[in-house]
Design goal:
Elements (H helix, E strand, L loop, with lengths): L1 H4 L2 E3 L14 H15 L16 H11 L2 H8 L6 H12 E3 L14 E3 L2 E3 L3 E3 L13 H10 L3 E4 L7 H7 L4 E6 L5 H13 L5 E4 L9 H6 L24 E2 L2 E2 L9 H9 L5 E6 L2 H9 L4 E4 L13 H12 L4 E5 L5 H9 L4 E4 L1 H7 L5 H11 L4
Parallel strand pairs: 5-14, 6-7, 7-8, 8-11, 11-12, 12-13, 13-14
Antiparallel strand pairs: 1-2, 3-4, 9-10
Enzyme class: oxidoreductase
EC number: 1.1.3.15
Family: Belongs to the FMN-dependent alpha-hydroxy acid dehydrogenase family.
Length: 383
Amino acid sequence: MRSERTQAVGRPAKQLRLRSFCRSGQEEEEKTFSRKRMNSFDREGGHCTEMAMVCLTDFEEYAKEHLSKATWDYYAAGADDCCTRDDNLLAFKRIRLRPRILRDVSVSDTRTTVQGMEISFPVGVAPTAFHCLAWHEGEVATARAAESVNTCYITSTYSTCSVEEIAAAAPGGYRWFQLYVYRDRKLSELIVQRVESLGYKALVLTVDVPYTGKRRNDIRNQFKLPPHLKVKNFEGMFQQETGAPEEYGIPANTLDPSISWKDVSWLQSITRLPVIIKGILTKEDAELAVEHGVQGVIVSNHGGRQLDGGPASIDALSEIVDAVQGRIEVYVDGGIRTGSDVLKALALGARCVFIGRPVVWGLAYKNIPPHAMTEVLHFTPSF
């Protein structure tokens, strides 16, 4: 195990430049070129055809230009100074591969298994909220795209489509459900019962949100869901006075800040599904996860949206893989944008990676989001 993972070596890069966050003159030239390319047409044969996107950054640039400012800021947000959000990407660029040559690579197979289920490649869809802000079909389109390429889709609690609508739209899809623990445990219990009955295959317990992170642009924008959108999984479940404070579509202070390891045991007591913990960043917590009998962990800092100043997910991966020693499956999300990023994560011991923001960029693309979503998922593992 160790010898396989040491093929990815972390070293400082001599020059790091990230188009999404830097503002160099060269970057602006690249963005200008990209905009021209996206707006150009192939008139061969007497009709106009948009030129194909060639990387995830192209989708990012398109989404930034075409989504509303409040929506873009919500998807792009990081906590406080956004240092951890940005470092999720930069950390991959600090890792260097040690390529071996003259190896027969004429035949390759990207299939893998997660929790015993075979998927086409080791890239799944991370739980992200409010997909209908990017495209009117929202999570329904996301589920169909994931089903079409045979990969895992982790449905967010904060979906703008209900779990029933998602399951009906992609009945053959492989889905997990991302769960929070609420002050009213009955809310969590009811949604667990719903997803079990709908054929979801695992529960992903998010543990890094005792309180919502301070996302400055959301505060400046006074971000709220537009009136026609709801957190559909909780529709009709809250008795709330008109004008009462909300936080991202549900009543404020609904999340339980007292959540602890005993709640992992409680969750296991009410479900037959595997439990995967999302938000592990230290070997100590990874060891506790194993002790509590969970089936997997997702190494994640919530896309840098919760706690600024924590480690990049990829930087935390190795110590967690070493701690669990193969006893449970280890996954990672945060900052994955290219096939080489996927390769680095696998080399460092991840079973599978999950991508979040690129999925909503794909949803936002033109009027063909299901196709664009499929392209996003195909672009990522193109080694």
